[in-house]
Specification:
Layout: E1 3-7, H1 11-21, E2 26-30, H2 33-42, E3 47-51, H3 59-67, E4 74-79, H4 84-92, E5 97-100, H5 105-116
Parallel strand pairs: 1-2, 1-3, 3-4, 4-5
Length: 118
Protein backbone atom coordinates (compact mmCIF):
# COMPACT_ATOMS: atom_id res chain seq x y z
CA UNK A 1 0.00 0.00 0.00
CA UNK A 2 1.55 3.34 -1.03
CA UNK A 3 2.54 5.67 1.83
CA UNK A 4 1.27 9.26 1.66
CA UNK A 5 2.27 12.17 3.90
CA UNK A 6 -0.12 15.14 3.90
CA UNK A 7 1.21 18.47 5.19
CA UNK A 8 -1.19 21.34 5.93
CA UNK A 9 -1.59 23.71 8.87
CA UNK A 10 -5.39 23.75 8.48
CA UNK A 11 -6.41 20.97 10.84
CA UNK A 12 -9.89 20.40 9.40
CA UNK A 13 -8.66 20.02 5.82
CA UNK A 14 -5.73 17.86 6.92
CA UNK A 15 -7.93 15.47 8.87
CA UNK A 16 -10.58 15.41 6.13
CA UNK A 17 -7.99 14.42 3.54
CA UNK A 18 -6.46 11.84 5.85
CA UNK A 19 -9.83 10.20 6.48
CA UNK A 20 -10.80 10.30 2.79
CA UNK A 21 -7.56 8.65 1.63
CA UNK A 22 -6.80 6.14 4.38
CA UNK A 23 -8.96 3.38 2.84
CA UNK A 24 -6.62 3.20 -0.17
CA UNK A 25 -3.30 4.43 1.21
CA UNK A 26 -1.17 4.37 4.35
CA UNK A 27 -1.69 8.03 5.29
CA UNK A 28 0.28 10.12 7.77
CA UNK A 29 -0.60 13.73 8.54
CA UNK A 30 1.57 16.64 9.68
CA UNK A 31 0.48 20.14 10.70
CA UNK A 32 3.83 21.73 9.78
CA UNK A 33 6.99 21.11 7.81
CA UNK A 34 9.07 20.51 10.98
CA UNK A 35 6.55 17.85 12.06
CA UNK A 36 6.61 16.34 8.54
CA UNK A 37 10.40 16.11 8.62
CA UNK A 38 10.27 14.32 11.99
CA UNK A 39 7.75 11.83 10.57
CA UNK A 40 9.88 11.31 7.48
CA UNK A 41 12.81 10.32 9.70
CA UNK A 42 10.67 7.37 10.84
CA UNK A 43 9.25 6.35 7.45
CA UNK A 44 9.82 7.89 4.03
CA UNK A 45 6.55 8.33 2.11
CA UNK A 46 6.04 7.47 -1.55
CA UNK A 47 4.07 10.68 -2.01
CA UNK A 48 3.90 14.01 -0.18
CA UNK A 49 0.83 16.21 -0.59
CA UNK A 50 1.62 19.68 0.70
CA UNK A 51 0.03 23.08 1.02
CA UNK A 52 1.99 26.20 0.11
CA UNK A 53 1.15 28.71 2.85
CA UNK A 54 2.17 27.37 6.26
CA UNK A 55 3.98 28.80 9.27
CA UNK A 56 7.72 28.20 9.86
CA UNK A 57 8.50 26.84 6.38
CA UNK A 58 6.33 27.24 3.30
CA UNK A 59 5.47 24.41 0.94
CA UNK A 60 7.79 25.62 -1.82
CA UNK A 61 10.83 25.62 0.48
CA UNK A 62 9.77 22.16 1.70
CA UNK A 63 9.50 20.98 -1.90
CA UNK A 64 12.98 22.26 -2.71
CA UNK A 65 14.36 20.42 0.34
CA UNK A 66 12.61 17.18 -0.66
CA UNK A 67 13.99 17.40 -4.19
CA UNK A 68 17.54 17.36 -2.79
CA UNK A 69 17.08 13.97 -1.09
CA UNK A 70 18.81 10.98 -2.64
CA UNK A 71 15.42 9.30 -3.21
CA UNK A 72 12.86 12.11 -3.07
CA UNK A 73 9.18 11.24 -2.74
CA UNK A 74 6.81 12.39 -5.43
CA UNK A 75 5.00 15.60 -4.49
CA UNK A 76 1.57 17.08 -5.13
CA UNK A 77 1.64 20.79 -4.34
CA UNK A 78 -1.52 22.81 -3.70
CA UNK A 79 -2.39 26.36 -2.78
CA UNK A 80 -5.31 28.72 -2.38
CA UNK A 81 -3.21 31.35 -4.18
CA UNK A 82 -1.84 29.18 -6.98
CA UNK A 83 -0.76 31.54 -9.72
CA UNK A 84 0.86 30.43 -12.96
CA UNK A 85 4.17 31.77 -11.62
CA UNK A 86 3.90 29.76 -8.39
CA UNK A 87 2.93 26.65 -10.34
CA UNK A 88 6.01 27.01 -12.56
CA UNK A 89 8.24 27.46 -9.48
CA UNK A 90 6.72 24.36 -7.87
CA UNK A 91 7.19 22.23 -10.99
CA UNK A 92 10.79 23.45 -11.35
CA UNK A 93 11.38 22.59 -7.68
CA UNK A 94 10.21 19.03 -8.29
CA UNK A 95 6.42 18.90 -7.91
CA UNK A 96 4.81 16.16 -9.97
CA UNK A 97 1.48 18.02 -9.96
CA UNK A 98 -0.11 21.24 -8.70
CA UNK A 99 -3.70 21.84 -7.63
CA UNK A 100 -5.56 25.06 -6.86
CA UNK A 101 -7.36 25.05 -3.53
CA UNK A 102 -10.20 24.38 -3.04
CA UNK A 103 -10.22 21.17 -5.04
CA UNK A 104 -12.63 18.28 -5.30
CA UNK A 105 -11.65 15.03 -3.59
CA UNK A 106 -12.21 13.09 -6.82
CA UNK A 107 -9.75 15.42 -8.59
CA UNK A 108 -7.14 14.84 -5.88
CA UNK A 109 -7.65 11.07 -6.11
CA UNK A 110 -7.27 11.22 -9.90
CA UNK A 111 -4.02 13.19 -9.59
CA UNK A 112 -2.71 10.81 -6.89
CA UNK A 113 -3.37 7.88 -9.23
CA UNK A 114 -1.54 9.60 -12.08
CA UNK A 115 1.43 10.60 -9.93
CA UNK A 116 1.78 7.16 -8.38
CA UNK A 117 1.33 5.50 -11.75
CA UNK A 118 -1.86 3.65 -10.85
Amino acid sequence: MPRILIVDDHHFLLESLRLALEADYAVTAAYSVPQALALMDQCMPDLVITDYQMPFVNGLDFLEFLHQLSKPPKVIFYSGCLSRELEVLAIRAGAAACLPKPFELKELKRVIGEVLGA
